[in-house]
Amino acid sequence: MEANKKPLLENLKKIGKGIVPFVNPLEDLSRKKDFDTNSWFVIGHFEAEGHKLNFLFHLMTLHMQDNMSILTSVFSITDETTGFYYGEDKVFPLSLAEISETEFSIKAPNGFMSGDLNQMHVQATMPCGKVDVTLNPVGYALYNGSTGYFPMLNMNIHQYSLPTLATTGTITIEDKTYEINGTSWFDRQWQNQSIDIGGHWSWMDINLDNGDKISLWDTVEDSTGNETAWATILHPDGSQTVTAVEPLSIGQSDYWLSQKSGQKYPTHWMVKIPTLDACLEVTPCPKEQEIVSQHEALHKYEGASSVKGTYRGKETTGYCYVELVGSWK
């Protein structure tokens, strides 16, 4: 069996070229009680009955300015074929959540994630949709920055990704249920942070048809306006490359003003990675994929997107989510 299709746990026994891990996917899956922010994030992309379907489910603990700890539960479904989109952000007191500190098990009133690195189960519901999927991690882990630990804005981030989870189950949109069989991406992140992050960021999980998986960050500091963009690329053989990206502000366009939040988001990007001779056009569909929260600082954009362009001098296609967090006014 090819290594990029073997179970993740088998591949974790060896470390790919260009990786010096500071985090441990096996040991760091459950909640870190010494950090006020713990995040578990799943996004999936599928084709079913002629439809391109995507879902996002994100559970995160956060410490608010009033000393209250909360669990945010973000869930969205996108049908790129019809333009259907619905997303919501539910905020619960941490006392209403059930979070294990020894196992991977997080339960919110509207959904849950549980399991281990052999198999995970994710279920989430909202008024017009539901996701119920089983995830089997295969291939390799992606360690952002080659270590899984990096500074960003006023935070020190711990983050690893499992970009290839073989996924089966169902996605329900209103009264229609689709049987799905495809791939999901899982992110585990933890840090200490204030609700004011001191800037804004863009993040993309770019999945290309040659098998490369790209975790791309672009940050802008409020105080200085300094912009930093970089990417970690996981190759099919398990090796990684960390490289600079042209600042996204140079190639972003087609701004959309949300009437609900007042945020003004770019919705089209030309992503350039010079060392890889890459120029990738990223386009969300539909344009309006904002998550509006009851807390203004938690408004965000999470857009299922298509990718096309050139990579290492060859034509390529792919897909991703675009995440825009912070103040975009």
UniProtKB/TrEMBL annotation:
Source domain of life: Bacteria
InterPro entries the UniProt entry points to = AttH_dom
Q: Please state every residue range assigned to the domain named AttH.
A: 38-191
Residues of the signal peptide: none
Q: What protein does this entry describe?
A: Lipocalin family protein
> From what organism does this protein derive?
Clostridium frigoriphilum
Highest lineage ranks of the organism?
A: Bacteria, Bacillati, Bacillota, Clostridia, Eubacteriales
